[in-house]
Design the sequence.
């Protein structure tokens, strides 16, 4: 299993999430879909590496991949990963200049979660 530092986790997450768009979102549950071109990019990724990255993101409780539907359902703790943060992440495709702000928020969450452990 590959070890990642906090910045690598956040950067990789943000790099991969850009291939996905929010299809449905209620507090605590998110469904994202990949476009065909996004699915081609995601298919190139090492599944174990992605699972390792997801496991390191605090607040993600569970996720389920539906390859046929090109979608992922993510169950998350809204006390850790706020609904509004997911909306900001989902808007990065339209507003890529917000990436550094979103990145800083995710890094803060990651670092704060490690202080608790």
Sequence:
């Amino acid at each position: 299993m590959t070890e990642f530092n906090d910045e690598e986790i956040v950067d990789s997450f943000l790099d991969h999430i850009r291939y996905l768009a929010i299809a449905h979102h209620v507090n605590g549950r998110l469904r994202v879909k990949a476009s065909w071109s996004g699915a081609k990019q995601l298919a190139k990724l090492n599944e174990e590496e992605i699972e390792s990255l997801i496991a390191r993101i605090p607040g993600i409780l569970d996720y389920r991949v539906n390859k046929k539907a090109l979608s992922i359902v993510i169950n998350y703790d809204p006390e850790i990963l706020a609904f509004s943060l997911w909306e900001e992440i989902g808007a990065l495709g339209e507003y890529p200049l917000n990436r550094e702000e979103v990145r800083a928020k995710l890094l803060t969450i990651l670092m704060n979660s490690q202080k608790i452990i």
